[in-house]
């Protein structure tokens, strides 16, 4: 089932999410619905707060980035086969020299800005089968994970922009929170006028 994606301005996006246990109600169904929602919106990642749930759960499938011709064949292959669910994740390390990349977000449509992040991360998490992992990711995969991880920490990519950039997009963000935007997927707007 395709769920509405929560738009910028909703308080759930600024909350630090809570861990869950394996008895979380209808978790398998929730994960299936999140995949449906993410693919319907042509996303490469989706975190539970983006569908209104302040829990430490996100998923990624960076396969669309595999078509980037600047990547090595090995990097392309890695991205194609990286569909993953992260439950109760903890980033243990972030390493390397920060690099900029134009990021967007399903909760903040039509806004793309360069965000600086470290190129390599080590993360501990359990998957949808409650198997524990400690994995290292780099490049675009690490970036997608860091973006989604920020969501469960109550951080948006716009929080990482300079004060000048934030001022330049302020009106656009206000329009998004009021629902004054056309998107091709279901969204829930916190400040939309009733009767829309």
Question: TL;DR of this structure?
Answer:
This protein has about 200 residues and is an alpha+beta fold.
Could you explain the architecture of this structure?
The chain is an alpha+beta fold and about 200 residues long. The chain has one domain: Peptide deformylase (Peptide Deformylase, Alpha-Beta Complex). It has 4 helices and 9 strands; from the N terminus they run βαββαβββββααβ. The protein has helices spanning about 25-40, 75-80, 140-150, 165-175, and strands at about 5, 45, 55-60, 85-95, 100-105, 110-115, 120-125, 130-140, 185-190. The strands form 3 sheets. The protein has a 5-stranded antiparallel beta sheet with strand order 2-3-4-7-8, with helices on both faces. Strands 1-9 form a two-stranded parallel ribbon. Strands 5-6 form a two-stranded antiparallel sheet. β5 (about 100-105) and β6 (about 110-115) form a beta hairpin. The longest helix has 15 residues, at about 165-175.
Q: What is the overall number of helices?
A: 4
User: Which fold does the CATH topology refer to?
Assistant: Peptide Deformylase
Assign the CATH class: Alpha Beta
CATH architecture: Alpha-Beta Complex
Major sheet summary line? 5 strands, antiparallel
Q: Helical residue percent?
A: 25-40%
User: Percent of residues in beta strands?
Assistant: 25-35%
Mean pLDDT: 94
User: What is the CA-based Rg, rounded?
Assistant: 16 Å
| Overall geometric form | globular
How many structural units, i.e. domains?
A: 1
Distance between the termini: 23 Å
Q: Numbering strands along the chain, what is their spatial order in the largest sheet?
A: 2-3-4-7-8
Order of helices and strands: EHEEHEEEEEHHE
Protein name: Peptide deformylase
GO biological process, one term: translation
Cofactor: Fe(2+)
Family: Belongs to the polypeptide deformylase family.
